[in-house]
Amino acid sequence: KQEVTQIPAALSVPEGENLVLNCSFTDSAIYNLQWFRQDPGKGLTSLLLIQSSQREQTSGRLNASLDKSSGRSTLYIAASQPGDSATYLCASPWMEYGNKLVFGAGTILRVKS
Amino acid sequence: GAVVSQHPSRVICKSGTSVKIECRSLDFQATTMFWYRQFPKKSLMLMATSNEGSKATYEQGVEKDKFLINHASLTLSTLTVTSAHPEDSSFYICSAIGKGYGYTFGSGTRLTVV
User: Fold this and answer.
1) A75: helix, coil or strand?
2) Average pLDDT over chain B, rounded to whole?
3) What is the rounded (10 degree) CA torsion for B24, B25, B27, B29?
């Protein structure tokens, strides 16, 4: 069974800091890995999608990496801002699960001004 | 980009009544839609997968007679919570995928059963 773990569960940093969110998965048979952002009481916004053949993707201040062999992905946020405060979720469509997404529990990020 | 519209965003209903939640893909054809439930400070729990024109596939432990899912067209799926009880209060989110489009999520529905 695929298990997705996110560390840390919560993170509080001052504005301007660079930070790293971690995601690990137990089964490397994945099509891709996605990072999402969820604001309180809202749906999910896709941030970055890394295909299984890729090692990283970048969008603005966000950079996500994928290492299938070690079962890990990281989301790097540069120069954090208060507007980055949200819950960040990683998820992967696990091949043996019929391509359905398996989510981590998320990292709650708070960026203090 | 792909947009999924979910309505209503919030609903309060009386215990014993039924509530329908709609999920629409606005600019693409959604071959598959997913319904999730999210408890406070928890991640998303997949409830069921629906493909256009066929019966939904429910995850283990999800009552199909309580959570009725209809995917009548390539742009619309509905989740009906029947005979709602306070324990059904939760945040429900839909997601859709289509050819050439990855997972796109709706904005969620906060259901409160009183």
Assistant:
1) strand
2) 91
3) -120
Q: DSSP secondary-structure letter at A16? A: T
- DSSP code string of B79-104: EEE-S--GGG-EEEEEEEEETTEEEE
- Please check whether residue A33 is in contact with residue A91, taking contact to mean a CB–CB distance below 8 angstroms: yes
SS3 letters for B42-73? CCEEEEEEEECCCCCEECCCCCCCCEEEEEEE
Residue A105 touches chain B, beta carbons under 8 Å: yes
Cβ atoms of residues B39 and B45 within 8 Å: yes
The distance of A71 to chain B (nearest Cα, Å) reads 20
Which tens digits make up the pLDDT trace of B40-83? 878 889 999 998 878 899 999 999 999 999 988 889 999 999 99
Provide the token pair at A30.
């994945």
Structure tokens given for B102: 């990855």
For chain A, positions 2-21, list CB contacts with chain B under 8 A: none
Contact pairs from chain A to chain B, CB under 8 Å: 45
